[in-house]
């Protein structure tokens, strides 16, 4: 992507030619169960708005990481998989997002799923990988059946078993009240980091979960990616999953290590580069500071469908035209709103306006409202005559495509997470996208997240049609 200042504006506005997917697609471990009925797209009045996300999350692991692949499928005997689910489990190395097939890994790098006994090679880790494979199978069964009993019994971690059971109970209760049931699920596990010793292994694994949901005879697909640390210990001839620690990134208040390294004093004015920045990028215009420019007479239309399309394109990876933060949810939502034609309010001061400048030399410059959940909630809550603004509504069913939800996990008055509405279920309830824990068409209340608590509060922001 071009590195010149302001070029991210052109990248956001371009819809016809999406950026190429990154090389180095990681191998994965798959476990799959499928439903029986054909999935159908649905609209605002009856079913989910489905927009295909192109590209697959990529990026090669460090050289000392170990990546292996296994495909495991299990079919319900009374079900026939739909064409959609056949594409999910087809072992042709073709991602469901529509990208070209990657080069098939060499046979020596694969763990083959077979009914024949396999003699493990010394030091190849086949034994603990078999235990990890079983963990993924049971995780997928928990998602599909909404029952954590088998997985809880398999893991020798009473604290996680209780945590998992509570989340599963919340999910089952919520879906029953919605009239939604899982019609099938698929879980892929990507090994991010592996540390091995003689009798112990620690694994950082990314779980990509897809659930096909049925509601009032209509179907939609929801996706999310979670990261977990697992500790396995040899127990005789077997390996025991000794401990599981979910990485709950949505709760972290930081917005990036790199951002902290380059943070500047909020009272310091940015370098005088306004003229060169504005010459090719209209969204930086601040009409209060630059009265020579005229507003559109009727206001700038907020293009909700463009905001939702951008959200579906970049839900599981970072747009290389922007900084990628460790906690990326608000940065991602800001990009989506910007893609929907919302004009930036460029003040040059981090504590005011809503803007993103990118790198200036060795510094990264953006407003807090662009990248921090609580700052964005404060910015959208403030009364404003023009530019990006929002109306706080009382319930989620008053939201439209491209609207925003802020999450205060503990109910303490400080928001730690932000999502954007990208679809609706058949009952008219919002489905949202997020990026810190990548999520696509996820039910808005986040009761399926480890970050959720009984004190969680929400703020619903409706962005007007004209800005």
In brief:
The chain has about 475 residues and is α+β, with helices and mostly antiparallel strands. Helix content is about 20%, strand content about 25%.
Describe the protein's architecture and organization:
The chain is of the alpha+beta class and 467 residues long. It folds into two domains: 212 residues, Nuclear Transport Factor 2, Chain: A, CATH 3.10.450; 217 residues, endopeptidase fold (from Nostoc punctiforme), CATH 3.90.1720.10. 22% of the residues lie in helices and 24% in strands. The radius of gyration is 23 Å and the shape is globular. The two termini are 29 Å apart. The relative contact order is 0.14.
Topology, element by element:
Layout: H1 7-13, E1 29-33, E2 70-73, H2 83-89, H3 126-145, H4 149-154, H5 158-178, E3 180-196, E4 200-215, E5 218-235, E6 238-246, H6 257-261, H7 274-278, H8 304-313, H9 329-339, E7 356-360, E8 363-366, H10 368-371, H11 373-381, E9 391-393, E10 404-408, E11 417-424, E12 430-434, E13 439-443, E14 457-462
Parallel strand pairs: 1-2
Antiparallel strand pairs: 1-3, 3-4, 4-5, 5-6, 5-13, 7-8, 9-14, 10-11, 10-14, 11-12, 12-13
Helix pairs in contact: 8-9
């Amino acid at each position: 992507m071009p590195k010149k200042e302001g070029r991210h504006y052109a990248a956001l506005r371009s819809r016809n030619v999406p950026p190429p997917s990154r090389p180095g697609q990681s191998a994965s471990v798959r476990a799959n169960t499928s439903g029986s009925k054909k999935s159908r797209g649905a609209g605002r009045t009856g079913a989910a708005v489905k927009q295909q996300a192109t590209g697959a999350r990529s990026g090669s692991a460090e050289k000392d990481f170990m990546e292996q692949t296994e495909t495991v499928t299990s079919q319900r005997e009374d079900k026939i998989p739909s064409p959609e689910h056949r594409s999910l489990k087809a072992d042709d190395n073709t991602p469901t997002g529509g990208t070209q097939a990657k080069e098939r890994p060499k046979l020596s790098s694969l763990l083959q799923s077979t009914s024949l006994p396999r003699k493990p090679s010394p030091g190849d880790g086949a034994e603990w990988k078999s235990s990890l494979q079983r963990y993924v199978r049971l995780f997928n069964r928990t998602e599909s059946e909404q029952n954590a009993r088998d997985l809880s019994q398999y893991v020798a971690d009473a604290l996680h078993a209780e945590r998992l059971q509570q989340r599963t109970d919340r999910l089952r209760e919520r879906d029953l009240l919605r009239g939604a049931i899982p019609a099938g699920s698929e879980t892929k596990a990507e090994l991010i980091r592996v540390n091995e010793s003689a009798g112990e292994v620690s694994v950082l694994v990314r779980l990509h979960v897809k659930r096909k949901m049925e509601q009032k005879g209509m179907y939609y697909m929801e996706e999310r990616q979670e990261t977990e640390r697992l500790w396995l210990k040899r127990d005789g001839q077997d390996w025991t999953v000794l401990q599981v620690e979910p990485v709950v990134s949505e709760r972290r208040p930081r917005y990036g290590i790199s951002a902290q390294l380059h943070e500047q004093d909020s009272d310091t004015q940015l370098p005088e580069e306004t003229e060169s920045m504005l010459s090719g990028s209209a969204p930086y215009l601040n009409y209060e500071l630059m009265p020579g420019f005229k507003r559109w007479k009727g206001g700038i239309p907020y293009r909700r469908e463009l905001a939702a399309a951008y959200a579906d394109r970049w839900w599981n990876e970072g747009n290389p035209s922007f900084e990628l933060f460790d906690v990326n949810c608000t940065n991602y939502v800001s990009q989506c709103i910007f893609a929907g034609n919302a004009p930036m309010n460029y003040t040059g001061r981090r504590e005011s306006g809503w803007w993103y400048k990118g790198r200036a030399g060795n510094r990264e410059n953006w407003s807090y409202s662009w990248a921090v959940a609580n700052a964005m909630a404060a910015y959208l809550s403030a009364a404003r005559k023009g530019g990006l603004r929002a109306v706080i509504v009382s319930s989620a069913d008053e939201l439209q495509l491209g609207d925003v939800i802020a999450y205060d996990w503990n109910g303490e008055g400080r928001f730690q997470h932000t999502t954007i509405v990208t679809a609706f279920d058949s009952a008219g309830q919002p489905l949202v996208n997020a990026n810190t824990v990548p999520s696509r068409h996820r039910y808005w209340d986040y009761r399926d997240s480890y970050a959720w608590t009984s004190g969680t509060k929400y703020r619903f922001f409706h962005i007007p049609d004209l800005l």
